[in-house]
Amino acid sequence: xxxxxxxxxxxxxxxxxxxxxxxxxxxxxxxxxxxxxxxxxxxxxxxxxxxxxxxxxxxxxxxxxxxxxxxxxxxxxxxxxxxxxxxxxxxxxxxxxxxxxxxxxxxxxxxxxxxxxxxxxxxxxxxxxxxxxxxxxxxxxxxxxxxxxxxxxxxxxxxxxxxxxxxxxxxxxxxxxxxxxxxxxxxxxxxxxxxxxxxxxxxxxxxxxxxxxxxxxxxxxxxxxxxxxxxxxxxxxxxxxxxxxxxxxxxxxxxxxxxxxxxxxxxxxxxxxxxxxxxxxx
Length: 282
Description:
Layout: H1 13-29, H2 42-55, H3 69-82, H4 84-99, E1 108-117, E2 128-129, E3 136-144, E4 150-157, H5 162-177, E5 183-186, H6 192-200, E6 204-207, H7 224-233, H8 247-267
Helix pairs in contact: 1-4, 1-8, 2-3, 2-8, 4-8, 5-6
Protein backbone atom coordinates (compact mmCIF):
# COMPACT_ATOMS: atom_id res chain seq x y z
CA UNK A 1 0.00 0.00 0.00
CA UNK A 2 1.36 3.41 -0.98
CA UNK A 3 2.00 5.73 1.93
CA UNK A 4 -0.30 8.74 2.10
CA UNK A 5 -0.40 11.94 4.07
CA UNK A 6 -2.35 11.32 7.31
CA UNK A 7 -5.65 13.02 8.09
CA UNK A 8 -6.34 14.41 11.59
CA UNK A 9 -9.01 11.73 12.04
CA UNK A 10 -6.61 8.85 11.33
CA UNK A 11 -5.88 6.33 14.06
CA UNK A 12 -2.40 6.45 15.52
CA UNK A 13 -0.50 3.18 15.96
CA UNK A 14 -1.50 3.12 19.62
CA UNK A 15 -5.16 3.80 18.87
CA UNK A 16 -5.27 1.14 16.16
CA UNK A 17 -3.79 -1.40 18.58
CA UNK A 18 -6.87 -0.89 20.80
CA UNK A 19 -9.31 -1.63 17.96
CA UNK A 20 -7.34 -4.13 15.89
CA UNK A 21 -8.15 -7.28 17.93
CA UNK A 22 -11.91 -6.90 17.36
CA UNK A 23 -11.55 -6.08 13.66
CA UNK A 24 -9.00 -8.84 13.04
CA UNK A 25 -11.20 -11.41 14.80
CA UNK A 26 -14.17 -10.32 12.67
CA UNK A 27 -12.11 -10.62 9.49
CA UNK A 28 -10.95 -14.12 10.47
CA UNK A 29 -14.60 -15.19 10.88
CA UNK A 30 -15.57 -13.78 7.48
CA UNK A 31 -13.00 -15.16 5.10
CA UNK A 32 -14.04 -15.38 1.47
CA UNK A 33 -14.52 -18.79 -0.13
CA UNK A 34 -11.54 -18.11 -2.40
CA UNK A 35 -9.35 -17.07 0.52
CA UNK A 36 -8.98 -13.52 -0.80
CA UNK A 37 -8.28 -11.08 2.03
CA UNK A 38 -9.64 -8.00 0.28
CA UNK A 39 -7.94 -5.12 -1.50
CA UNK A 40 -7.90 -2.73 1.47
CA UNK A 41 -6.29 -2.87 4.89
CA UNK A 42 -8.79 -2.97 7.76
CA UNK A 43 -7.05 -0.02 9.43
CA UNK A 44 -7.73 2.08 6.34
CA UNK A 45 -11.38 1.00 6.32
CA UNK A 46 -11.74 2.23 9.91
CA UNK A 47 -9.87 5.43 9.03
CA UNK A 48 -12.33 6.05 6.21
CA UNK A 49 -15.32 5.55 8.54
CA UNK A 50 -13.81 7.94 11.08
CA UNK A 51 -12.94 10.48 8.38
CA UNK A 52 -16.51 10.50 7.11
CA UNK A 53 -17.93 10.75 10.62
CA UNK A 54 -15.65 13.66 11.48
CA UNK A 55 -16.02 15.65 8.24
CA UNK A 56 -19.63 14.74 7.36
CA UNK A 57 -18.88 14.07 3.70
CA UNK A 58 -21.02 11.85 1.49
CA UNK A 59 -19.91 8.32 0.66
CA UNK A 60 -18.98 9.27 -2.90
CA UNK A 61 -16.84 12.18 -1.66
CA UNK A 62 -14.37 10.11 0.35
CA UNK A 63 -10.81 11.15 -0.66
CA UNK A 64 -9.21 9.03 -3.36
CA UNK A 65 -6.38 7.96 -1.07
CA UNK A 66 -8.87 6.26 1.29
CA UNK A 67 -10.82 3.09 0.45
CA UNK A 68 -13.77 3.85 -1.86
CA UNK A 69 -17.47 3.93 -1.06
CA UNK A 70 -18.03 0.32 -2.17
CA UNK A 71 -15.60 -1.10 0.39
CA UNK A 72 -16.13 1.36 3.24
CA UNK A 73 -19.92 1.25 3.03
CA UNK A 74 -19.86 -2.55 2.97
CA UNK A 75 -17.87 -2.84 6.21
CA UNK A 76 -19.75 -0.03 7.94
CA UNK A 77 -23.08 -1.74 7.18
CA UNK A 78 -21.79 -5.20 8.08
CA UNK A 79 -20.45 -3.99 11.42
CA UNK A 80 -23.61 -2.19 12.53
CA UNK A 81 -25.69 -5.11 11.34
CA UNK A 82 -23.88 -7.71 13.47
CA UNK A 83 -22.96 -5.41 16.39
CA UNK A 84 -19.20 -5.26 15.81
CA UNK A 85 -19.33 -1.48 16.20
CA UNK A 86 -20.85 -1.92 19.67
CA UNK A 87 -18.32 -4.62 20.63
CA UNK A 88 -15.47 -2.28 19.70
CA UNK A 89 -17.09 0.57 21.61
CA UNK A 90 -17.69 -1.56 24.72
CA UNK A 91 -14.10 -2.80 24.74
CA UNK A 92 -12.78 0.75 24.88
CA UNK A 93 -15.46 1.93 27.33
CA UNK A 94 -14.42 -0.74 29.84
CA UNK A 95 -10.77 0.25 29.43
CA UNK A 96 -11.52 3.95 30.02
CA UNK A 97 -13.46 3.10 33.19
CA UNK A 98 -10.66 0.81 34.37
CA UNK A 99 -8.10 3.56 33.72
CA UNK A 100 -10.24 5.87 35.88
CA UNK A 101 -10.22 3.18 38.60
CA UNK A 102 -13.91 2.48 38.19
CA UNK A 103 -15.75 -0.81 37.96
CA UNK A 104 -16.40 -2.08 34.46
CA UNK A 105 -20.08 -1.09 34.58
CA UNK A 106 -21.64 1.93 36.34
CA UNK A 107 -24.27 2.08 39.06
CA UNK A 108 -25.63 5.47 37.92
CA UNK A 109 -26.63 6.62 34.43
CA UNK A 110 -27.86 9.91 33.00
CA UNK A 111 -30.58 9.96 30.32
CA UNK A 112 -31.38 12.68 27.81
CA UNK A 113 -32.65 13.14 24.25
CA UNK A 114 -31.71 15.42 21.39
CA UNK A 115 -33.75 16.26 18.29
CA UNK A 116 -31.81 16.61 15.03
CA UNK A 117 -32.92 17.57 11.53
CA UNK A 118 -33.00 14.82 8.94
CA UNK A 119 -31.19 15.28 5.63
CA UNK A 120 -32.92 15.18 2.28
CA UNK A 121 -33.51 11.60 1.17
CA UNK A 122 -33.96 10.15 4.65
CA UNK A 123 -37.15 8.03 4.53
CA UNK A 124 -40.17 9.82 5.97
CA UNK A 125 -41.26 6.53 7.56
CA UNK A 126 -38.38 6.84 10.07
CA UNK A 127 -38.71 10.56 10.80
CA UNK A 128 -41.28 12.92 12.28
CA UNK A 129 -41.76 16.37 13.78
CA UNK A 130 -41.10 16.89 17.47
CA UNK A 131 -44.09 18.32 19.29
CA UNK A 132 -42.01 20.42 21.70
CA UNK A 133 -38.99 21.53 19.68
CA UNK A 134 -40.73 21.53 16.28
CA UNK A 135 -37.73 19.79 14.75
CA UNK A 136 -38.50 17.67 11.66
CA UNK A 137 -36.22 14.68 11.82
CA UNK A 138 -35.11 12.18 14.42
CA UNK A 139 -34.71 11.96 18.17
CA UNK A 140 -31.38 10.71 19.50
CA UNK A 141 -31.41 9.34 23.04
CA UNK A 142 -28.35 8.63 25.16
CA UNK A 143 -27.64 6.98 28.49
CA UNK A 144 -24.18 7.92 29.79
CA UNK A 145 -22.24 7.33 32.99
CA UNK A 146 -20.68 10.01 35.21
CA UNK A 147 -17.48 9.87 33.13
CA UNK A 148 -19.45 10.84 30.04
CA UNK A 149 -19.19 7.39 28.44
CA UNK A 150 -22.11 6.17 26.38
CA UNK A 151 -23.91 3.13 27.77
CA UNK A 152 -26.90 3.05 25.41
CA UNK A 153 -28.13 4.74 22.23
CA UNK A 154 -31.58 4.87 20.66
CA UNK A 155 -32.64 6.65 17.49
CA UNK A 156 -36.34 7.30 16.88
CA UNK A 157 -38.55 9.61 14.87
CA UNK A 158 -38.52 13.12 16.37
CA UNK A 159 -42.26 12.76 16.94
CA UNK A 160 -41.67 9.95 19.47
CA UNK A 161 -42.25 10.94 23.10
CA UNK A 162 -39.32 11.04 25.49
CA UNK A 163 -41.04 8.21 27.37
CA UNK A 164 -40.52 5.91 24.39
CA UNK A 165 -36.84 6.82 24.23
CA UNK A 166 -36.43 6.51 28.00
CA UNK A 167 -37.99 3.05 28.16
CA UNK A 168 -35.82 1.82 25.28
CA UNK A 169 -32.70 3.30 26.91
CA UNK A 170 -33.43 1.67 30.27
CA UNK A 171 -33.92 -1.70 28.57
CA UNK A 172 -30.54 -1.34 26.85
CA UNK A 173 -28.87 -0.20 30.07
CA UNK A 174 -30.19 -3.21 31.97
CA UNK A 175 -29.11 -5.53 29.16
CA UNK A 176 -25.63 -4.03 28.63
CA UNK A 177 -24.61 -3.69 32.28
CA UNK A 178 -25.92 -6.91 33.78
CA UNK A 179 -28.02 -5.18 36.42
CA UNK A 180 -25.31 -3.04 38.01
CA UNK A 181 -27.18 0.21 37.35
CA UNK A 182 -29.40 1.12 40.29
CA UNK A 183 -30.21 4.76 39.55
CA UNK A 184 -30.95 6.96 36.54
CA UNK A 185 -31.20 10.74 36.48
CA UNK A 186 -33.58 12.28 33.92
CA UNK A 187 -35.05 15.70 33.15
CA UNK A 188 -38.70 16.69 33.27
CA UNK A 189 -39.33 15.51 29.71
CA UNK A 190 -39.45 11.93 30.99
CA UNK A 191 -42.74 11.11 32.72
CA UNK A 192 -44.14 8.49 35.10
CA UNK A 193 -44.03 5.72 32.51
CA UNK A 194 -40.24 5.84 32.54
CA UNK A 195 -40.15 5.87 36.33
CA UNK A 196 -42.44 2.84 36.49
CA UNK A 197 -40.49 0.98 33.82
CA UNK A 198 -37.25 1.65 35.65
CA UNK A 199 -38.72 0.32 38.88
CA UNK A 200 -39.57 -2.92 37.09
CA UNK A 201 -35.92 -3.24 36.08
CA UNK A 202 -34.63 -2.42 39.56
CA UNK A 203 -33.54 1.09 38.52
CA UNK A 204 -34.60 4.10 40.57
CA UNK A 205 -35.43 6.85 38.05
CA UNK A 206 -35.09 10.32 39.60
CA UNK A 207 -36.28 13.47 37.85
CA UNK A 208 -33.88 16.38 38.24
CA UNK A 209 -35.95 19.57 38.33
CA UNK A 210 -34.76 22.95 37.22
CA UNK A 211 -34.70 25.82 39.71
CA UNK A 212 -37.44 28.21 38.50
CA UNK A 213 -35.28 31.18 39.51
CA UNK A 214 -32.48 30.18 37.12
CA UNK A 215 -32.15 32.14 33.88
CA UNK A 216 -30.50 30.77 30.78
CA UNK A 217 -28.55 27.52 30.70
CA UNK A 218 -27.52 26.33 34.16
CA UNK A 219 -25.64 22.99 34.37
CA UNK A 220 -27.41 20.50 36.61
CA UNK A 221 -25.29 18.46 39.06
CA UNK A 222 -24.10 15.23 37.39
CA UNK A 223 -26.60 15.59 34.52
CA UNK A 224 -24.32 18.11 32.82
CA UNK A 225 -22.24 15.16 31.64
CA UNK A 226 -24.84 14.01 29.14
CA UNK A 227 -25.14 17.58 27.81
CA UNK A 228 -21.37 17.67 27.43
CA UNK A 229 -21.38 14.45 25.41
CA UNK A 230 -23.97 15.85 23.00
CA UNK A 231 -21.62 18.79 22.50
CA UNK A 232 -18.67 16.49 21.84
CA UNK A 233 -20.64 14.40 19.37
CA UNK A 234 -21.56 17.49 17.35
CA UNK A 235 -17.84 17.94 16.61
CA UNK A 236 -18.40 14.92 14.36
CA UNK A 237 -20.21 16.63 11.50
CA UNK A 238 -21.98 13.51 10.31
CA UNK A 239 -24.00 13.78 13.53
CA UNK A 240 -24.99 17.45 13.16
CA UNK A 241 -27.78 16.34 10.84
CA UNK A 242 -29.11 12.78 10.51
CA UNK A 243 -28.09 11.52 7.06
CA UNK A 244 -28.72 7.82 7.67
CA UNK A 245 -31.53 5.89 6.01
CA UNK A 246 -31.63 3.33 8.85
CA UNK A 247 -31.94 4.38 12.52
CA UNK A 248 -29.51 1.57 13.45
CA UNK A 249 -26.96 3.10 11.09
CA UNK A 250 -27.50 6.45 12.82
CA UNK A 251 -26.85 4.84 16.21
CA UNK A 252 -23.68 3.28 14.78
CA UNK A 253 -22.38 6.76 13.98
CA UNK A 254 -22.59 7.58 17.68
CA UNK A 255 -20.69 4.42 18.63
CA UNK A 256 -17.91 5.15 16.12
CA UNK A 257 -17.65 8.78 17.24
CA UNK A 258 -17.33 7.69 20.87
CA UNK A 259 -14.85 4.97 19.89
CA UNK A 260 -12.65 7.67 18.40
CA UNK A 261 -13.07 9.89 21.48
CA UNK A 262 -12.17 7.04 23.84
CA UNK A 263 -9.21 5.88 21.74
CA UNK A 264 -7.79 9.39 21.99
CA UNK A 265 -8.47 9.48 25.71
CA UNK A 266 -6.72 6.15 26.29
CA UNK A 267 -3.64 7.21 24.33
CA UNK A 268 -3.44 10.74 25.72
CA UNK A 269 -4.11 12.41 22.37
CA UNK A 270 -5.90 15.73 22.06
CA UNK A 271 -9.07 15.93 20.02
CA UNK A 272 -8.39 18.22 17.03
CA UNK A 273 -10.61 21.25 16.60
CA UNK A 274 -11.72 23.01 13.45
CA UNK A 275 -9.71 26.10 14.35
CA UNK A 276 -6.02 26.23 13.50
CA UNK A 277 -4.29 27.47 16.68
CA UNK A 278 -1.80 29.45 14.58
CA UNK A 279 -4.56 31.63 13.13
CA UNK A 280 -6.17 32.59 16.44
CA UNK A 281 -5.95 36.31 17.14
CA UNK A 282 -6.36 38.08 20.47
